[in-house]
Structure formats: structure tokens, C-alpha cells
Amino acid sequence: MIDRAKISKMVLWVLLGLLAVLALYPVCFLIMGSLMGNDELAGYLGAVISGGKGYAAVPLLPGFPTLKHYVEILLDSPEFFVMFWNSIKITFGVLAGQLVVGTMAAWGFAKYEFPWKKGFFLIYIILMLLPFQVLMLSDYLILDKLKLTDSLWGIVLPGAFSTFPVFIMYRFFTEIPDSLIESAKLDGAKGCQLFVYIALPIGSSGVIASMVLSFLEYWSLIEQPMTFLKDKSLYPLSIFLPDITSTGKSGMAFATSVITFIPALLIFLGGQDYLEQGIMAGAVKE
Fold first, then answer.
1. Which residues contact 109 (CB under 8 A, 6 or more apart)?
2. Nearest to 207 by CA among 102, 89, 87
3. Fewest beta carbons within 10 Å, which of 21, 101, 154, 235?
4. Domains in the chain, CATH or no CATH each
């Protein structure tokens, strides 16, 4: 007798496997392309790179593997390390600011009562939904007045006051029982002690989830640096990729993409569980 449940499950797994292969293939091709020589890449991607006739090929494995492009990036491209360090300063500067400002704002919205609380939180949500392009002009004018349009602070400060991490952490802080807070107050705990010894430890999952999401966002910034930074020596690594691609050095573009991808992948894998909890918490309606 045919077990329809097992067959249905098998078909489902096959379909999911095919979808997984399709989703992972661009990453695999990126890695394989970084190991190909210039001539081999030109043979496969010549129609795309040179704008000629024909179609690009998508090989599974390089015919003649080489680490030449990684050597060019890591040893012969000093601007790569300048941009890499700029990305580090921007990303971790933003994360540090969000860790201070965002956690306090989320805790205040979650457990304190004050006039116009719901109205202010609604403004936070609206600002979270607005894309960068909508606020670009106003942000530029403010940063220009503050003389920050050609400084990394012009990228770090707006990111530090981002509303999205507040929204994520707020969901976790609201789940802290009020009875626990009242018990701590009866024992003599003050506002700062409640925040440090109760809010942060219990809501750590939300804090880590928001930090992972922010890292993934600010590690790959493109529009903000191109808008607010004039000095190319301040550009982050995410700006380095289209630049070397435009010069026709496709092998270096592949290798740089792989190197840039590794930190984001490690952060994602390390915070995957917290990230899932944050997404689930953010999906809960008020």
C-alpha cells in the first residue's frame, strides 16, 4: 500500500532541496569565480563584461584554480585595508551607539509611562518604515550644517539613533514581568539598577538580535557613504566592490566579494538563533 504521507513529504523535501540549491548557487559561483584566472573568467563572462554578443556560462568548478586575485587584494591593494578599516569603524561605531541609545529608548517605551508615549512610539515606527531616500535630503542638510558631511561621524551618528533596533528590543523588554520589577523596587533597586541587572540580562536575546541585524545592514552600506562622504579615503569596503568591477578586474571583484562576505556570514551564523527570535518578536502585533 502506498504511503501518501511519506511520498508527499519526500516530494516536499526534493522541492526544498532544489530551491536551496538555486539559492546557494550564486554564492558557490562567487567562490568559484574568485579562484579562476582572468583568461578563464573572460571566456565564461566575456559576453557580459565586454558587452559583446552571446551568453555567459556558469561553470561549477574552475578549470585552473588560482589564488592570484586574493594575493592582489591582500598584498597589492593597500586601499583595500583602508576601506576595510573604515567599514570596521562605521559598523562598530553604529553598534556601540545603538547599544547605548537604543536599549535605553526601548526600555523607556516598554516599562515607563509618560505623556504622549504612544504618539512618540508611532513616530518611531513611521521613521523605521521610511527608506533612506525619503530622508536623504534632510539628513544631508543637517549633517552639512554640523560639518559632518565629509566625516565618518556623518554615517555613524544617524545609524546610532536608528529606530529599528528600538522596535526589536522593545518587544523583548515588554515580556519582562512587571512583578519582577516591582519586587526589585521593594528590595531597593533604582532605575539604573533595574536597567542593568534586569532589563539587559533578560532582554539580551532582543539586544543581540538587533545588533546582528544592524551589523548586516551597516556592513554593506552603499548609498549613505556615497551621499555623505566626499573624500574617497573615507569610503567603506562596500564602495570598493563596484569600483574594481568598473575597471574590468572581475577576478578581483569576485575575491573582494568573498572576503567581504565572510564577516557577515560569521556574524549571521553566530547570531542566527537570536535573529530568529528577533524576527518572530517583531512580527507580533501590538
1. 117, 120, 121, 124, 166, 170, 173
2. 102
3. 21
4. 4-66 (no CATH), 74-282 (1.10.3720.10)
> DSSP class of residue 176?
S
Question: CA–CA distance from 252 to each of 52, 74, 148, 241, 256 (Å)?
Answer: 21, 10, 32, 9, 6
Helix, strand, coil share (%) of the chain residues, nearest 5: 75, 0, 25
What is the pTM for the complete model shown? 0.82
Residue 281 pLDDT more than 50? yes
**What phi and psi values does residue 15 have, to the nearest 5 degrees?**
-65, -40
Contact 156, 92 (CB under 8 A): no
Q: So what's the pLDDT on residue 286?
A: 43
| Dist. CA 276–CA 261, nearest whole Å | 20
Q: Can you read off the three cell numbers belonging to residue 127?
A: 521613521
Residue with cell 533597586: 189
pLDDT of residue 180: 85
> At which residue does the C-alpha cell 556560462 appear?
57
Read off the pLDDT of residues 239-250 as tens digits, 9 standing for 90 and up: 877 555 555 577
Q: What is the DSSP string of 66-134?
A: --HHHHHHHHH-HHHHHHHHHHHHHHHHHHHHIIIIIHHHHHHHHH---TTHHHHHHHHHHHHHS-HHH
Q: What are the grid coordinates assigned to 29, written together?
A: 559561483
